[in-house]
Amino acid sequence: QVQLVQSGAEVKKSGASVKVSCKASGYTFTGYYMHWVRQAPGQGLEWMGWINPNSGNTNYAQKFQGRVTMTSDTSITTAYVELSRLTSDDTAVYYCAREMNKMVDYWGQGTLVTVSS
Amino acid sequence: SYELTQPPSVSVSPGQTASITCSGNNLGDRYTSWYQQKPGQSPVLVIYQNYKRPSGIPERFSGSNSGNTATLTISGTQDMDEADYYCQPWDSSTEYVFGTGTKVTVL
Questions:
Q1: Helices (H) and strands (E) in chain B — how many of each?
Q2: With a cut of 70, which residues of chain A have pLDDT below it?
Q3: Distance (Å, rounded) from C-alpha B63 to C-alpha B81?
Q4: Who contacts B14 (Cβ-Cβ below 8 Å, separation ≥6)?
């Protein structure tokens, strides 16, 4: 069965960077785009971007351009999102989510990133 | 960027029908998905490509999309349907924005 298992919670200082991982299993990793979505406390879902694990191509939301990097390692079927120059506004739960045919059908369990000053 | 608007909240009595709208410019030209999210949980896909239901999603969930509005309808609403619901259109020429979210309360 398809599973997306994310890395554990992180606490970071303002100005630091954070890297969250998403280990995929149960399907052909290179056959599906991986999206990253975040959700600040009490707020809605915010799309950050996607990566094509097969080619390494990425598409980032304009809001995060220059500050986000999405990568993947096909040898261990894991996707990553790294966000730099963190501020308190980046405190959120970060989700990875698999795209299939214009829909996201599986989500990771989420990773809480807390940014403190 | 593309903007989507949903009502902040919808209240419904058990067994009645809840309708959640999602409005955006020419939204009907885009395949739209709907996600259900319960507190402390990851979102779950309930409708994709405007009206299709993934396996395991009850038939009481249905969707439509035309003009500037997509609609998620929950017929015979149950207590377990109390959750936040988000729309998301798919269009490779735009960012994959989400709607603002609607909290469905079953009274």
A1: 0, 8
A2: none
A3: 15
A4: B77, B78, B79, B106, B107
Band of pLDDT at residue B94, cut at 50, 70 and 90: low
Cα distance from A77 to chain B (closest Cα, Å)?
Answer: 21
* pLDDT tens digits, one per residue of B45-63: 999 999 999 999 999 999 9
- CB-based contact (8 Å) between A3 and chain B? no
Are B43 and A44 inside 8 Å of each other by CB? no
Q: Label the pairing between strands B18-23 and B31-37.
A: unpaired
Residue A32 CB contacts under 8 Å (≥ 6 apart), including other chains: A53, A98, A99, A100
The residue length of chain B stands at: 107
DSSP state string for B25-42: TTGGGSEEEEEEE-TTS-
Max CA-CA distance within chain A?
41
Give me the residues of A, 23-42, that contact B with CB < 8 A: 35, 37
Task: Return phi, psi of residue B4, to 5°.
Answer: -125, 135
Instruction: State the pLDDT confidence band at B65, using cuts at 50, 70 and 90.
Output: very high
Q: What is the mean pLDDT of chain B?
A: 94
Alpha carbon of A18 to those of A53, B65, B90: distances in Å? 20, 38, 28
